[in-house]
Amino acid sequence: MTLSVIYTAGMRARRLVSLLLLLQLGRRFTAAELAERLHTSVRTIHRDVTALVDAGVPVQADRGPGGGFTLPSAYRTRLPLTIDEAQALLLGTPGAAASLGLGALLLDAQAKLLGSLPADMRQAARRAQELFHVDDQRWFTNPDEPELLAPLASAAAERRVVRIEYERRGEPEAELLEPLGLILKAGVWYVLSGRADPARIHRVSRIRSIDATGQRFHRPGGFDLAEAWQRSRDEFETSRPELPVTLLAGRDDLPALRAALDGSVRPSVRVGGPAPDGRVEVGLTFERLEHAHADLLKLGGAVEVTQPPELRARLAATGRELARRYA
To answer: Which of 125, 174, 232, 269 sits between 20 and 30 A of 261, alpha carbons compared?
Structure first.
């Protein structure tokens, strides 16, 4: 069996399980809604529903306006997970589960999930599991596993207000926190808190202490952690300072320019029209002058900054210093 066939079979097995779990939420889904949730086509959803029915799952299909797919309210797959195992499974990645002390429970939950699948789906899922592994840790960095992650998660689960000391600019500041949920972003843990929209973001590793207050808070009605995180993240990214930079580069140098830039450049390299000498004008947006200097210095003389003057002057001064050093 080829790699592509194994991958396709594994993806279909995972999609069928996800489809079954969605239908077990007790509400009616249209084919379009299921296709959007599972990132596939409506035609594929109809094929997957047929496969579930052939496997003995009593999916009900209602046609016409207001129709869709449902399961009988009493129907449940036989998957005897404990509460802790279910929580570990829903975390999604081994790194997140391990940081919260749920790594072993995640393995148990996955074993039970595999055991509940039909034989052909179980075989395809095992092959996919053998071929693909997600490592969300960045290169050359230590895992971000703050000591206070577990008690903060407990406070979020029990909706307890906590008093924290948070490090800002090297100094601890006391504040009250209503932890709404935890997010693992690029190997770093954050906590979303407060009633504001967007909610506040705190990096967990900068929390120096947590103390109980004896108070509880009410989670906002209809609150969705993923949507709230996206709004807060977008607000954070757009509120950062911006430094527009214009430079000239040969078209052959554009790949090296893109490779030299880090995440501080937003949103991308904007290539303009040709200059009189045949080079093209490129527009960039950095967060700070220091970031622009560090990134563009890697390219030596392959690019020429035209704006802002202070960046051009700093690069020129660095070039003169290097020439004196290595003369």
So the answer is: 232
